[in-house]
Amino acid sequence: MRKVDFPVADDGAHLDVGDVFDTCIEKARGKLRAKLIAVRPKIVQASAEYAHAAAGNQLHQIAVSGDVDGLTKNQLSDVYSERMVKGPGRLYYDRILVGSPTCPLCGVGGTAELDHHLPKKQYTLLTVAPGNLVPTCERCQGEKMTARPTNAAEETLHPYFDDFDSETWLKADVVTAAGAAFVFSADPPAAWGPTVAARLRRHLATFDLGSLYSLNAANHLAGIRQSLVNLHAAGGAEAVRLEMTARAVSWEANLKNTWEGAMHRAAAESQWFCGGGFAVK
Ligand SMILES: [Zn+2]
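^ inputs. structure came back:
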């Protein structure tokens, strides 16, 4: 839902998976350390292939890894859980996390943790790849399905590699029967094609964003309802329409696809809403 810049080092270059991995395994000793050093080239290679695939909507073609070169998938997963989250690699964890104060998956919550875009249990060579670590809010982390994508249309949006904010695609509709409720859906330009349309819908569904946005819209309307009553009393439906339009334009000037922008646009375009539907509880 929101594009985020790829995590960078102090010099502005993309965070290097080799640097992250080396720092994470600093305290490993003995045979485990030797095995981890031996697998490093595969970690670097997997990260490069990941970036290339993600840029081309081909992440579904990345092979799952599991145990690699005498390292169990738990040992590889622990490089993240024990050595990055809780160990010397924590500085990289924190650096990636601060890259986006707002959750890029929903655009609503504050980020609280990192999420493996491709799950670490299955993609054991990507557990500390910066491109696979995305800041998320607790809600999106909880909603996420662990099933991996099997085709391009099943890939949810990747905040580092996808940017679908050049045009408006998040749409709201006013549900008159329910008393000024707003329902949200993905309605991208036809030129974007069926795969992108499917991905946008899958993203909304995977993170249950329709429910989140409808709830936020209902609460927002409750808060501005009295001001709309006053506007309507002074200038009728046209005054309400102008106000909702102005708000939509302002939200869209910042980001084209927010629940706020979609809500106000839908309200402005609904004669029922502007004519007094906003007052229906
Ligand atoms: Zn979120």
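The chain has a mean pLDDT of 95. The pocket of zinc ion is lined by residues 103, 105-106, 109, 136-137, 139-140 (CB under 6 Å).
thumbs up if we can close this ticket
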